[in-house]
Amino acid sequence: MALIDLLVPEVVKTPLEAKDKPDVLRELVQILKDAGQIDDLDTVLKAVQEREDKQSTGLGAGVAVPHCKTPAVKSLKLAIGIAPEGIDFDSLDHEPTTLFFLLVAAPDQSGPHVEALAEIARLARSKAFCQALVRAQSAQEVVDLIKGE
């Protein structure tokens, strides 16, 4: 399953309201809940926080990919949040993070999870593309940019 297959404006939020790491995680999971993608916000949030506690998913260059596996979902879920001002996310480069890609997968589905992580890593390599996402004025614009429309 390609990342773009999961991407609809309902799972994208720009700008995020959160100002710190715990609130970013909560807001990203809430996006999935509000979009009808998950039922159990607390279980998913706990799984995301536990994964993040092991090692920050702030990759650097303004990109973070918080992710987890939980039986609370049956298939891969994606939420994207954009914080144009940047948020301290304990990134590897110690720089503020502006792009957040939350992935939530079922425990028995490693393939789609790994494929999505690789796809995000490919997207994140283009500094110009990341800057275009941060400048996007709406969820639909983010979707259109990622889908290449």
Task: Summarize, please.
This protein is of the alpha/beta class and 149 residues long. The chain contains 6 helices and 6 strands; from the N terminus they run H-E-H-H-E-E-E-E-E-H-H-H. The chain has one domain: 3-Layer(aba) Sandwich (Mannitol-specific EII, Chain A).
Termini separation (Å)? 19 Å
Number of helices: 6
**Major beta sheet summary:** 6 strands, mixed
Shape: globular
- Tell me the name of the CATH homologous superfamily: Mannitol-specific EII, Chain A
Structural class: alpha/beta
- Total domain count: 1
What is the CATH top level name?
Answer: Alpha Beta
How helical, in percent, are the residues? 40-55%
Describe this structure in words.
- The chain has 149 residues and is α/β, with parallel strands linked by helices.
- The chain has a single domain (3-147), classed as Mannitol-specific EII, Chain A, CATH 3.40.930.10.
- It has 6 helices and 6 strands, in the order αβααβββββααα.
- The chain has helices spanning 3-6, 21-34, 41-54, 110-124, 127-135, 139-147, and strands at residues 12-13, 58-60, 63-64, 67-69, 77-87, 97-105.
- Strand 2 (58-60) and strand 3 form a beta hairpin.
- Helix 2 (21-34) runs antiparallel to helix 3 (41-54).
- The chain is globular and about 35 Å long.
